[in-house]
Amino acid sequence: MPTASPILAWLVSYRYAIAFPLAIVEGPVVMIVAGFLVHTGFFEFWPIYLVLVAGDLTADIGWYFAGKYGGRPLIEKYGHFFDVTEANVERAETFFHKHQTKILFISKLTTGFGMAIAVLIAAGAARVPFKKYFTVNFFGEFVWAGFLFSIGYFFGQLYSLVNKGFQWMFLAALITLAGLAMYGFTKAMRKKFRNRVPLS
Question: Do residues 99 and 91 lie in contact, with contact meaning Cβ atoms separated by under 8 Å?
Answer without folding.
Answer: no
